[in-house]
Amino acid sequence: MSVEPRAPGYDGVTPEDESEAGSTRGPVMPDGLDRAHPTPGALVESFGDAILRHEVMSGDEHVVFVEPSRSFDILEWLRNDPDHLYNYLSDVTAVDFGGGRPLQVVWQLYSIPYRRALRVKAELPLDALEVQSVEPLWKSANWLEREVYDLFGIRFSGHPDLRRILMPTHYAEGHPLRKDFPLRGRFSRAEQTRRALELNADDYYVDAQRGPGREPQLVEWQELGGEPVPVEEEPESSSTSQSSDGSEPA
Amino acid sequence: MSKRTVEYKISRNPEMGTDFMPAQGLMAPTDMVEPRFDSENMLINVGPQHPATHGVLRLILELDGETVVRCEPNIGYLHSSFEKLGEYRTWNQIVTLTDRMDYLAPLIYNCAYVMAVEKVMGLEVTERCKVLRVIMMEMDRIFSHLLWLGTWAIDVGAFTPFLYSFQEREKVYTLHEAFTGARITTSATRVGGLMSDVPEGWTEGVREFATGVIKTLDEVEYLLSTNAIHLGRTQGVGAISAEDAINYGFSGPNLRASGVPYDVRKDRPYYDYETYDFEVPIGEHGDCYDRYMVRMEEMRQSVRILHQALDRLPGGSVNVDDPRVVLPSKTDAMNDMESMIHHFKLIMDGLKVPEGESYFPVEGSKGELGMYVVSDGGSKPIRWRVRPPSFVNLSVIPKLVEGGLLADVIMVNASLDIVLGEIDR
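Predict the joint structure of the above. Result:
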């Protein structure tokens, strides 16, 4: 870790600081390519225009911005190419800068054989928040992508089980980590309380039973000799499951 | 992966017949009894309030007899949106949030966060601060592993190791309290240093703990490592291959138990970890027993690091000498104009972090703990992301338990060493 000591000013980085500290922000590809890290150069050779730019952050962290539509191919190549072998996906997350700027999806890659880290980013405009899932490449992406979907609303196409993970299943207020989401939620306190009181635990139970590619497991009420329960406003919540009744055979 | 299948299924016992109904009176009223009891799979909930889930974790298990057919973890009960809260806090205020994530090893989280911020700022902390942070992190690694050890032993059915390990933990609590005033919510670090220097006699206390904990570990290992019940319940249970462990994002002791020697302290060293003499224990089979052995050995290695760090602990200040980052002393702030201005600016605006971002991984007690901070040059982060090791480790649990026994779910869950505060954040 060779970070050059640099005292921060009150107003962030001044242009003088920038020049002193060397390349905090790396030059734009491909002219001033930083040769300290072999991967960005190799990426440009293989993918050309799909690699938008390359930056060096905080001294030694290499960031590659890629075309969102090609992200899967690029990540697959990074994982499988014998000279790079980024076999460990540390993290998938997103960054919202607010103000209508595009959301960044961030993949933190690490190559255990080569002891090399790389950060890949794709910028998604707010009206096209979809990117291909890397779950087929790294299983660790499963929950991480679900979390990004839950908290940012970015859809990962090809994900086997894209559901909310941290927020409640029926959470209706949107995606909390977006900058336009108020800290206390979109609904008023009264509305939040009203919805909380209206919650039906059975809804959650049935939803949780719904695995990938499975239908919700509903109990035939007549079979149990009970009266049919009137259907609520939401078709999903009309389930009348009362317990962990007989599930579909696996 | 070794999967166990059970031949004998009570629900398919021919003697019971297909129209077997449980005795009246033992179960709920008749209309509540499931009519199709015979050969259907059964769904049960483990948690969210259950001592063996180590927090508010809910596992929905589909069982065929006693064999787990499907496991679905359900999390989010503790979700408090720390990351969102962090965007409304100044850089130093976030330290308070970090120790509430992993209350089992709060100092590691405190340190990891400020290290990421310092990296964005290009700030080099003092040598004393570095060594003290290493001491704090290694101490809390043992601290966290001791809790894991106690609960692990409880889950396997042994009560004594729990008492032994919690007795040792109490000493760390005392050290936390002596240093920070709090036992769990330490908030000990600040950007550019520590909240204060350690009190007099604190390092001797750490050394005493480091010496004493070895004896406890010996005792517990004597009780557990060759115990027939312990071996039977953990060997070959919840095994995962090295390739899968990497692919599924395992990190920390769980990954190393599968034979992958990836330790952030060795592979991406920070704070001169490369100059400390310690080994990275790795397992062979990747099962619960190996995860146990790896953690037991890791505590001993942490003790080695502790002793070395205590030996090399230099004098001097714990804070960087930069009034724009660290608060001046109260005397200076009252008597010196410049210091007063700095004090005022720091309190009113908070310190400013230049535009930039950093992903800073450290070896936490649960695995690779990455702090990803993005700054736009202001006094609050644009994004503060925690790469949660327990979260990723827990996501593997369906793979580990499916095909195994219900009783093994408890052991697998205990072997993963999760903390729900950080999973849900």
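Confidence is low (pLDDT under 50) at residues 1-34, 211-226, 234-250 of chain A.
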